[in-house]
Write a structure and sequence with these properties.
TIM Barrel, binds 3-methyl-2-oxobutanoic acid, eight-stranded parallel barrel, alpha/beta, Double Stranded RNA Binding Domain, binds zinc ion, 18 strands, three-stranded antiparallel sheet, elongated
């Protein structure tokens, strides 16, 4: 099988930095460039040297610090731009000057106000000029995908004759669709006589969300280099994402027979995080390959499948791109299998009936809460471990409270065996009113000696845990604990938990025919 290495030209530091809001200083650019070099990117486009002294300095610094990747600088087809690119690249081991000029009718007529022949001459002159300075010259006919094919082919042929070693075909405004874009590359391959003298590259923007699809179609049509950015950042809707292209080729070897890149894919996540942190552009959780949900599974059916055989619901091993493992997120769609597995990972071994009860508790919490954290599960499991018989069970709680003259009132329904009792009470606050109502239902009067509340998990919908101590009618101290996203409900659960302990303690003692002093 013939091997075809597709060069990865990363333009995170140039087109990526053109993302609204993203601005990198020279040191940050070097940090990213060094990471790109470690990931084995073939060419790093470090900036547009003429655009500002800051950009010039950044290109210089990247050129000085990167040894194993080529370093490119962008230039318009103007001598002073090419001079600046050249000067900024002087310390590069493998410098590349990247010249561009728009070729489409709309750009020719409205932006450049030049005829086809003038454009052709300017492009050729620019490539010749750059070629006198460095051997590696890339030319981009800007807005190539909206350029008349016959004229585009003439430009490509002419710049190759002038010495361009790479000719890049940009879909500048992200207008193409994959079949069409692949067709453009195929047309050039078949109609440009000297096409074998240069590498054909592609540079796709994502305005229709097709940048990666267009790049992959171009590779199938014969492109030998793709231009892309980490996390797909870039002008407007961004550029083709490096990680998606690399993993697309790697994952679909059946479509890309013999095709490979030099990229060390295990570096992808680290690089993505670095770029996100330094540009301040956050990665959406569902972003392919690098999003925090890219290898996370919530549905019970999917989790069960993953636990039986990972490939049932994953096309990429997360370790291939730098994640440590797949993530089974416990939420309302999760099943017992994943829950048990997770509880065991947290270090608990529970008998089946306790797992079952904890699972029920988890399901009802997951219905109320967007994210169930490990701390939530620990709280639920601990409740199960320290289980006391549920003599009283809170069925319903409704509280009204507010500032004076409002009187806090609680209505409570409690089940005892098969019967449900309801009562209401007023109090000094909603918790006091709730406790009074529960006391009336249970017939047990206790003294509250300690009460504390803490958040056991994070976020606005965190679980609150109430711990309390009550003195029983016979003077003994009992503790109670309750957890809920609603702190009044957690308070009621804690109070009922303490009452259950009192009653079960008394029952045990009676069973042993002793008379405990409660
Ligand atoms: O999108 C584009 O056309 C570009 C060129 C400068 C290559 O970024
Ligand atoms: Zn671009």
């Amino acid at each position: 099988m013939k091997k075809r290495i597709i060069k990865i030209f990363d333009t995170t530091l140039r087109d990526g930095e053109q993302s609204p809001g993203a601005s990198l200083d020279a040191e940050e650019k070097v940090e990213i460039a060094v990471q790109l070099e470690k990931m084995k990117v073939d060419v790093i486009e470090a900036g547009f040297s003429i655009s500002s002294p800051g950009d010039f300095h950044s290109v210089e610094l990247v050129a000085k610090n990167v040894k194993n990747s080529a370093v490119a600088a962008l230039a318009r087809s103007i001598q002073k731009d090419i001079d600046a690119a050249y000067e900024s690249l002087k310390k590069a081991v493998s410098p590349r000057i990247h010249v561009f000029l728009a070729t489409s009718k709309i750009h020719r007529e409205y932006k450049l106000k030049k005829a086809q022949e003038e454009i052709l001459k300017l492009a050729v002159d620019a490539v010749r000029y750059a070629k006198k300075k460095v051997p590696d010259v890339q030319f981009s006919p800007e807005d190539a995908s909206r350029t008349e094919l016959v004229f585009l082919a003439r430009v490509v042929e002419a710049v190759i004759d002038a010495g361009a070693t790479t000719v890049n075909i940009p879909d500048t405004v992200g207008y193409s669709i994959p079949e069409e874009f692949g067709g453009i590359i195929r047309y050039l391959m078949e109609n440009v006589s000297n096409i074998d003298k240069a590498v054909i590259a592609v540079h796709c923007h994502n305005d229709l969300g097709l940048a990666v699809a267009n790049s992959l179609a171009a590779i199938r049509a014969g492109a030998g280099q793709v231009e892309c950015t980490v996390n797909g950042i870039g002008e407007r809707a961004g550029n083709a994402s490096l990680e998606e292209i690399v993993m697309g080729i790697k994952t679909r070897k059946d479509f890309f027979e013999g095709v490979m890149t030099n990229i060390d894919s295990t570096m992808i996540l680290k690089t993505s995080k670095l770029v996100s942190r330094l540009t301040n552009i956050f990665v959406q959780p569902n972003k392919a390959i690098v999003g925090s949900n890219a290898f996370a599974h919530e549905s019970g059916i999917h989790q069960d499948g993953i636990l039986k055989k990972r490939e049932t619901y994953e096309i990429i091993d997360p370790r291939e791109v730098g994640f440590s493992e797949s993530k089974l997120v416990l939420g309302k769609h999760s099943g017992r299998h994943a829950f048990r597995e997770h509880v065991e990972k947290l270090g608990f071994r529970l008998p089946e009936e306790k797992i079952e009860k904890a699972f029920e508790g988890f399901k009802s919490l997951a219905d109320k809460k967007k994210t169930v954290y490990d701390e939530d599960i620990i709280a639920i499991v601990e409740d199960e471990i320290g289980n006391v018989p549920e003599i009283f069970h809170l069925e319903y709680l409704s509280v009204t409270s507010g500032s004076r003259p409002n009187i806090p009132t609680a209505t409570v329904k409690v089940r005892k065996d098969k019967d449900v009792y309801q009562d209401a009470a007023c109090g000094d606050g909603p918790v006091d009113a709730t406790y009074k109502a529960i006391e009336r239902i249970s017939g047990i009067q206790v003294e509250l000696v300690d009460y504390s509340i803490k958040s056991v998990t994070r976020g606005k919908d965190a679980l609150g845990e109430v711990s309390l101590k009550v003195r029983s009618p016979r003077g003994s101290i009992f503790t109670g604990r309750g957890t809920s996203t609603d702190i009044i409900e957690a308070s009621a659960q804690a109070f009922i938990n303490a009452l259950n302990k009192i009653v079960s303690y008394e029952k045990e003692k009676t069973k042993r025919k002793t008379s405990p002093k409660l």
